[in-house]
Amino acid sequence: MKTAVFYGIKDLKIEECDLPEVSENKILIKIEACAICTWEQRVYTGVKKVEYPFIGGHEIAAEIVALGSNIDKTKWQVGDKVVFGTNLACGECDFCKSGEEQNCLDFNHSKQLEGLPHKGMGGLSEYMLVESKHLFHYFGVTPEEAALTEPLSCVVHSCETADIQYGDLVVVIGCGIMGLLHVALAVKSGARVIACDLNSERLELAKKIGAHYIVDSSKEELSTKVKEISHNLGANVVFDTTPIHSVAEESIELVSNTGKVILYSSFYPDEPVSFSPDKLHKGGYSIAGTANSNSRDFVRASKMISERVIDMRPFISEIVPFADVVAGFESAIKGDKYRVVVRF
Ligand SMILES: [Zn+2]
Ligand SMILES: [Zn+2]
After folding, report:
1. Which of 70, 67, 105, 108 has its CA nearest to residue 87?
2. What span, in angstroms and rounded, lies between the C-alpha atoms of 196 and 215?
3. Domain 2-148+312-343, CATH homologous superfamily name and number
4. Which ligand is in closest contact with the Cα of 102?
5. Separation of 68 CA from ligand 1 center, angstroms?
6. Could you say which ligand is closest to the alpha carbon of residue 106?
7. How far is 56 from 37, CA to CA, in rounded Å?
8. pLDDT truncated to tens, each residue of the chain (344 aa)?
9. Which helix (H) or strand (E) holds 258?
């Protein structure tokens, strides 16, 4: 089989390796699609440091091709369409054991997975050997759409952390794919949604997927708009999906009493932010972070994608064959796409 291996900055090669044999408790899956996440783009450009050689890829849709002898055949069959949540969480710490794998103490992107020649998450390979606990069925949509289950699962986690209520005013700052998925889920939750970005095309898509208001922050002040719509109360929920610390500060200024600010993105560079502790004290609002997702989020995301409750098709900007994986990365890092998906 073939796998795509990082050997250095912008040094990604397809190499041949052995097809793993199915052991008793494992399932062999044939990868059909793997989306190129921002995380892998940062590995490609060297912003994110990993130990080489490294196999990336964690937004994965696949088909089952072989079952170990101990696998329950009433639950899993050859030919089943599945998404795979790469097993990065340790499974052993208190957070994993409490069902909070997304905040595992020992989250490891560079595990050596059984059946692969190098460390890494493994999705940019033709086959993977996996455990059934990390597999989730999907139905009726393309592998390209199903490959976006992992990003949607992270947004499910974020929106549940925010605990959006009917009629809430929700502000989503940043309309890349992750921001737009927040818009889509917030709309489904019965909220009034303001989407904010600098890019008019992205704002158009935000409008199309249901945002009630769009704010082009190069032309108008978000805080003025939030005051106007909320009659000076502020927003019940503010999602900051940008990696910019000044935007995090602005988000805290927008929230209403008892509201929630969710810092969704990772921050590059990671600089301190300031906020008024007295306003926090008196207003009773919360500032929370979310990252990653757990099995529960995956179950929900794969069901929503299967029924197109959330339609992932607008977010698939480009599909490249596996042989052209380098061209796919070059295209993804231009920053003007939602997702580039590698098709096997
Ligand atoms: Zn991802
Ligand atoms: Zn853990």
Report:
1. 108
2. 5
3. Medium-chain alcohol dehydrogenases, catalytic domain (3.90.180.10)
4. 2
5. 28
6. 2
7. 10
8. 999 999 999 999 999 999 999 999 999 999 999 999 999 999 999 999 999 999 999 999 999 999 999 999 999 999 999 999 977 798 999 999 999 999 999 988 899 999 999 999 999 999 999 999 999 999 999 999 999 999 999 999 999 999 999 999 999 999 999 999 999 999 999 999 999 999 999 999 999 999 999 999 999 999 999 999 999 999 999 999 999 999 999 999 999 999 999 999 998 888 999 999 999 999 999 999 999 999 999 999 999 999 999 999 999 999 999 999 999 999 999 989 999 999 99
9. strand 255-263
Please identify every residue whose CB atom is under 5 Å from ligand 1, which is an ion.
37
Query: How many angstroms is it from 73 CA to the middle of ligand 1?
Result: 30
Q: How far is the CA of 252 from the centre of ligand 1 (A)?
A: 26
CATH architecture of 154-289: 3-Layer(aba) Sandwich (3.40)
Fold match flag (2-148+312-343 vs 154-289)? no
Whether this prediction's pTM lies above 0.85 is answered by yes
Q: Which residue has the tokens 């929900």?
A: 300
Written as six digits, the tokens of 126 are 């033709």
All structural domains of the chain with their residue ranges: 2-148+312-343, 154-289
Calculate ∠ Cα 24-28-29, nearest 5°.
155
Q: Which ligand is nearest to the CA of 151?
A: 1
Gap from CA of 283 to ligand 1 centroid (Å): 34
Ligand 1 centroid–CA 284 distance in Å is 32
Q: Distance (Å, rounded) from C-alpha 312 to C-alpha 151?
A: 11
